[in-house]
Each structure stands twice: as structure tokens, then as C-alpha cells.
Amino acid sequence: MSRASSLLVCFVAVFVVGVLSYVVGPAALEVGRVNVFVYLATLALVIQWVAFIPAVIKRTETFYDIVGTSTFVVLVAVSWSLAAAHGLAGPRRTVLSLLVLIWAFRLGLYLGRRIHTVGKDSRFDEIKFNTPQFFMTWTLQGLWTFLTLLPVLIIVTAKTADSELTWVDFTGWLLWGLGMMIEVIADRQKNQFRTRGDGQAKWIDEGLWSLSQHPNYFGEILLWFGLFVSGLHLYSGAAWLGILSPIFVYILLTRMSGIPMLRQRAQQRWGDDPDYRAYLKRTRLLLPLPKGTLQT
Questions:
Q1: 75-118 pLDDT, tens per residue?
Q2: In the chain, which stretches have pLDDT less than 70?
Q3: S-S: 151 plus which of 55, 112, 137, 228, CB 3.0-4.6 Å?
Q4: Phi and psi at residue 211, in whole multiples of 5°?
Q5: pLDDT (0 to 100) of residue 3
Q6: Distance of CA 110 to the CA centre of its chain
Q7: What is the separation, in whole angstroms, between the first and last Cα of the chain?
Q8: Measuring CA to CA, which residue among 50, 20, 52, 57 is closest to residue 38?
Q9: Global pTM value
Q10: What is the pLDDT, as a whole number, of residue 197?
Q11: What is the dihedral of CA 205, 206, 208, 209, to 10 degrees?
Q12: In sequence order, what are the residues at sequence separation of 6 or more whose Cβ sits closer than 8 angstroms to the Cβ of residue 123?
């Protein structure tokens, strides 16, 4: 990617974050005379840009994922603290914030251990030596954190007091719990597979991975969809833009940096293996159920 293209992507990312802050901000609490979304959006981007400085100096990606998950923690903590300062930190906002914190700490710990063990992230083998493109990845991480958190931030920073919890809240939280469980189990199964050394010679085809080629991604998509669903009875007007969160997560994992990159590497390693082709044919892409269980 050229320098101009990388900088254009950065501009678009910042523009999207700015527009969303402007549109959803009027219904949110204010810091001074400015809606909190302006501060949260700025914070999401500035954290990435500050972290980019030592990263580009050392040409390393080792703390990229840690910075990303930490940004979720910071944004949620700031949002909940502001709500608490206005006497609005009721059960709904507190539970939503805790669910995000649980997810962020778990994922950050998992990714941190993985990068410590492997020593690098192959996605950055070339990118980290291209400064504009490397800067673009950090800027996009700011967009990722802000967009993914959007429905949670909308609910937690709302000016209105919490209404009573309903079955909609619990349904969304149940979906989050199911997605979280699937993601944790899938990550653990793959980690055990790699620890045995099998991952060097073969693709994983056991546990949840025998039912889905990417069960961890299914869990990730489901848990963020659940957090959006938990607010279905609360959204009005611009707040419905919270739907961008699960849509963005789905597109990111299935069309951009997730499945396409993994599929390309797998094809290079095992594309000519008839057993691998048979595995792809009999195994669903995302939904961890045997083929034939549901009509596809």
C-alpha cells in the first residue's frame, strides 16, 4: 500500500470516528460543554498514536494487541466513572461495563501470552517496516475500539436515568455469556493443540474446531451482538447506530483481517492436501454445528 493510500485510510478512520461522535453525542453526558463522545473518540485515537511512537522506533508489534485491549478498559472506565459522578451508574451500566472489562482482560492476557511465546505477529512482518502503513494499523485500532464499543458507550453515557432491567437485558447478556464461553473454549483448545506441536504440521480438527473452522471468531461476533441486543429496548434516534458494532466486528473478522488472512496462510501450507480440502468441505465456516444440523 502506498504512502498516500495509508494516509487516506487514516483520514477516513478519523473522519468516521468524528462523525459518529457528533451524531450520537447529543444524547450523552457532557464534560464541560462538550459531549463525552468527543473525549472518548479522541482518547481512543491518541492512545494508539502515543503507543505508535515507541513501536515505530523499535519496529515492533509486540504490544499492539495489549494497547488495543487496554483502550477498551480505559474507555469503559472513563464512561462508567462519568455516569457514577452524575449518580447514574445503576445495575445496567455497571453490568455492561463489567462484561467489557472481563472480555478485555481475558483477551489481553491471552494475546499477551501468545506474543510472548511466539515472539512476533506475522501480520506485521512487512507492515512494521513501512511507517505510513504501520501508522495506519494503529489508527485503525482506534477505530476498532470505538466502533466495537459504540452500543455500550451509548448506554453507559446516556443522560437519562436507568430504567428497570427487563428480559431484553438478560437475553443480551446471555448471548454475551454464550459467545464468551465459545471463544474461551476455542482458544484453550487451539492453545493445547499448539502446545503438543501438532500445529506445526496440521490444522486443528478437534473439539469446537471439528464443527467450525473459526469457532473463536463466532464467539467474538456473538458476544458483541449480545451486548448490542441488550439495549434494544433503549435505543432511539441516533442510538440505533450501535448496530454498527456487531456489523463491524463481523466484517472485520470474516472479510478483512481475520478469516481471509488465516485462509491465505492455510492454503499456502495445506492447499494441496486432500485431507485439508475434505476438512473445509465438511466443516462450517463459523457456526459450531455439524453440517446438516441446519440447512445452509
A1: 999 999 999 999 998 999 999 999 999 999 999 888 888 777 76
A2: 1, 118-121, 197-201, 292-296
A3: 228
A4: -105, -25
A5: 81
A6: 14
A7: 37
A8: 20
A9: 0.91
A10: 66
A11: -10
A12: 61, 257, 261
For the chain, give the secondary structure using H, E and C: CCHHHHHHHHHHHHHHHHHHHHHHHHHECEECCEEHHHHHHHHHHHHHHHHHHHHHHHCCCCCHHHHHHHHHHHHHHHHHHHHHHCCCCCHHHHHHHHHHHHHHHHHHHHHHHHHHHHCCCHHHCCHHHCHHHHHHHHHHHHHHHHHHHHHHHHHHCECCCCCCCCHHHHHHHHHHHHHHHHHHHHHHHHHHHHHCCHHHCCCCCCHHHHCECCHHHHHHHHHHHHHHHCCCCCCCHHHHHHHHHHHHHHHHHHHHCCHHHHHHHHHHHHCCCHHHHHHHHHCECCCCCCCCCCCC
Written as one letter, the residue type at 173 is W
> In this structure, how many other beta carbons lie within 10 angstroms of the beta carbon of residue 292?
8
Cell digits for 11? Answer: 483520514
As a whole number of angstroms, the distance between CA 8 and CA 151 comes to: 27
User: Do residues 20 and 7 make contact, with C-beta atoms less than 8 angstroms apart?
Assistant: no
